[in-house]
Each structure stands twice: as structure tokens, then as C-alpha cells.
Amino acid sequence: MIAHAIVFYIFSLIAIVSAIMVTVSKNTVNSVFFLILDFISISCLFIMIGAEFLGMIMLIVYVGAVAVLFLFVVMMLNVAQQKNEWFNSSGRSSHIPVGLLVSIIIFFELIIVIGGWKYKPELLDSIAIEINTDLTNTQSLGSVIYTDYIHLFQLSGMVLLVAMIGAIVLTFRQRSGVKRQSYFKQISRDRKDGIELVDVENNKGVKIDA
Amino acid sequence: MAELFIFFEQIYRILFLLIPVLVSVAMIVWLDRRVWAFVQKRRGPNVVGPFGLFQTLADALKYIFKEIIIPASSNKVIFILAPIVTMTLALIAWAVIPFSETFVLADINVGILYLFAVSSLGVYGIIMGGWASNSKYPFLGAIRSAAQMVSYEVSIGVIIINVLLCVGSLNLSDIVLAQKDLWFVIPLFPMFIIFFISALAETNRPPFDLPEAEAELVAGYQTEYSGMMYAMFWLGEYANILLMCAMGSILFLGGWLSPIDLFPFNVIPAPIWLILKILFLFILFALIKAIVPRYRYDQLMKLGWKIFLPFSLIYVVLTASFLMYFDLLPGN
């Protein structure tokens, strides 16, 4: 039990410190690496409380896919090597009022959430659904999501689909002058399409219709 | 005292798994070069030791005594971390591989997800190495491999769903035991082929070795690495290849099970069967390296997203409807 507590505190310490480092670190790529460390320690915490499915999905989705794309974008934007000048600048930045507003709103929302545990203690004991402890949590998650909450599940799927299509439409642009390769066209070519034999008269040349 | 004993027992078990894995990685590098040579009618490494078996050890010794050069303009911490990450991730995945019904280090409920997660983390070693080198070719290699590995992970994930539909459990031992009567390679043969090709892309093997395409990118993300750090990348890469072969044999070729449950076959111990299957898949990997030319990058992306992903999704629907119609769904 003591070992359990020690491991828990180690992981939560890593999670908190790396979460702070994400915002403090001056190099953007280092921020993303701290974000990844944060995701990994959070998924370790999930595994420690017995939610091994959530922990693994966290690793696969956030660390394996989302953070890779983050890193990809940050590196491609070439902000990697230049220092983040936001904290160093002596002049007033126009981002500060907006950022301040957003962070104040988030702060109050967090207070409301954490305060809810104080002003309504019975909230903690109320659970939405009976949990069958005999099943592994993969099975019980599956049986809950795909039976009782099937409509919500499909609805969230639709929201994601709309977001995906929206992102594709926004970034899609038709470029002219791009040579595309059509495998079918290439394979179905034969000698007649590619080669033409012409008798060339002397000093006349040959006209090619390209 | 008892806890201490358990602790040391675990360490002993981990070493008992890791040392054979590392030795077999060395042997597999030799085998790879040997197969490659035979396809091209060369002899391959045949000088050090019997049949050249100790060639890799000699190479490793050479790497250990070489100087480690860290480029002055690199990001030093990340530059050093990158090969360590690659190597560690390639080795920790072996914890869940079941070699027989009892011989498995960690028999966890979500074994296949763990394998999938660890193999999807493998891309970080490459991105970190490529970016931290602060040089053009490694960076291009890293960008390429990030896109490539993320794309092919998606189709591997869908293929795993196919297998899981037939098993009804995420535990690797359950997956193997579900193939007692029929290996999944027979009903899911198209998925096996796609898994194999995706595994080639996931481990950056030819014909999908664009991240280190020597004709265009020198050596890709490894360009700035030297000495032991290069050797660690290289060991990690081969450990990953072996891991993919192990994953393929567990998902499709019945893991440690013998092909026929008859006298001469079922006396051979279970781990031997798994090793034979891994070797079979690895020789296929090595042959493909020798006989197939490299893909172009846009063809690679097209293959991943426009062919493999839709096809494996359709196969999920087919498998699910088949199991539903004939009432073969596991777990009820």
C-alpha cells in the first residue's frame, strides 16, 4: 500500500511539474515534449486506479497521434529554434487582455467545479450507472457505451464527422498545374498510344501535335 | 524481506527475457544481411565466427569504441534522449508477449492495446533525433517518418479490431488460445497481408524506408549520429521489427500453438513454435527488402489512406456481419 502511494505521488508530481513546464518553457518544441510527458504520467495514473483501458487509449490517441501532429505542426512552423518572445518583450502585447479574459473565465469555472464538491457533498456518491465489478473495464465500458448511451455515442460521432469534414473543406484548395498520376491510364497504355512512326522528308521536319 | 525477494525475482525474470531478446536482435541482423546477400548471389557476412554469426557482435564492439559526436548546434538533451527512447520503447513492449501459456512476464488485460500504444510511441525516437540534430536531412527524414508511421498505425488499429471481433478479449493469451482450432490467418487472410505490409511501413523497412532513404536523405534521421548512439538506434529498429513479427504471429499465426495437435508436433515446447513463426515472418521481411524497389512518398500515403484504410474498414463490417449472422460472436 505504501509503495502504491509512493508511485502515485511520483506520477502526480511528474504530471503537475510537466504541466507547469508546458506553459513556462521558452522553446515551443520543449513545451510539446513536456505535454507528452504529462499525457504519459496521466495515463499511468489512470492505470493505477484500475482504468487500464482508458490509460491505454490515452496513450494511443493523445501521445501516439495527437501529440505527434502537434509536434509536426510546431516543427513545420519553424518557431522551433526561435525563442518564445512573449514573456521577454518589454512592450505591451495585444494578446494580454484576451488571454487574461480567457484565463479568468477558466479559473472561475474551475472554482465552480471544485466548489461543487464542497457545497453539494452528495454529488460525489451519486453515480450515473451501476457498475458491474465482475467484468473487465473494457467489457463494461463497451456494454455501457454501445447499449445505454448508444444515441449519445452516435451523436458525438456525428459531431466529430462534421468537424472533420469542416477541417477538410477549410484547408482544401485546388491547385492548377499539378500533374497527377493515374495508375489505370498508365497500365492501359500500349505501344500504339506511345509511339508513332513517321517517315521524315529531308529538310521538312515533322509536325508534332502535342 | 518478502517484498525484497519479489523485487529481485522480478528483476531476474526481466533479465531472463531481455538478454535473449538482445542476443536474438544481434542474430537477426546477421540473418537479415545473410538473406539479402543470398538473394543477390553474394556470400554476406561469413568471416567472424561460424557462418559469420558473430559479425554483429564485432560491429557492436566497433561502435562502442567509436567516439560519440554531438553536433554543436544541436539540442543536446533531446539529441541524447532520442536513441534512448527508441531502444527503451522497443524493449518494454516485450513484457506482454506470451511465449507459452505460463511463460509471460505481464499477462495484462489490455495486452494488445499496450503493444499498439508502445509501437505508436516508437515514432518519438525518430522525431526527436531528427529535430534535435538541427540539420536538414535528419529533419526531413523525421517529418516523413512522423507522417508515415501515424498513417499506417491507423490501418494496423483497424486490423487489430478485426482480430478482436473474433476473440472477444484484449488479452494476448486469450487471442492465442482463441486460435486453437483455426489460425486467424485463414479466415482473415487479406487482413494478414495488409498487416504485414503496414508492419513494413511502421518499422521503416524497405520498400517503405523513406525516412532513411539513402539516395535522397543521406541516412535520414540518423545522419548526425555516431558511435554507440547510432548503434542504439539500429538495435531499437531491429528489436521493433522482431516485435512486429511477434505481433503478427500472435494475431494471425496462432502464437505459441503448434500447427497440428499431433504427436511429433505437440512435444516441441511452445516457445520454440513462437520463435519459428517469428523467424518465418522475419525472413519474409528480409526477402522483401531484397526484392522490392522503394516506394515514392505520395504512393506510400495513397496506399495507406486510400487503399488499406477503406479496405480494412469494409473487412471489419464483413467480419462483424459474418459473426453476427452465424451466431459465432464470442462472449455470449
Fold and architecture overview:
The complex is a heterodimer of chains A (210) and B (332). With 210 residues, chain A is mostly helical. The radius of gyration of chain A is 29 Å and the shape is elongated. The model of chain A has no long low-confidence stretch (mean pLDDT 81). Chain A has eight helices and no strands. Chain B is mostly helical and 332 residues long. Chain B starts with a helix and ends in a 7-residue tail after the last helix. Classes of the chains: A mainly alpha (210), B mainly alpha (332).
Chains forming the largest contact: A-B, 26 and 30 residues
Distance between the first and last residues' Cα of chain B: 45 Å
Largest sheet of chain A: none
Distance from N terminus to C terminus of chain A (CA atoms, Å) equals: 80 Å
Q: Beta-strand percentage of chain B?
A: under 5%
* Helix share, percent of chain B: 55-70%
- Number of helical runs of chain B? 13
Portion of residues within helices of chain A = 55-70%
Provide the structure class of chain A: mainly alpha
Major sheet of chain B, described briefly?
none
Count of discrete alpha- or pi-helical segments spanning 4 or more residues of chain A: 8
Share of β-strand residues of chain A: under 5%
Structural domain tally of chain A: 3
What ranges of chain A have pLDDT less than 50 throughout 5 or more consecutive residues?
A: none
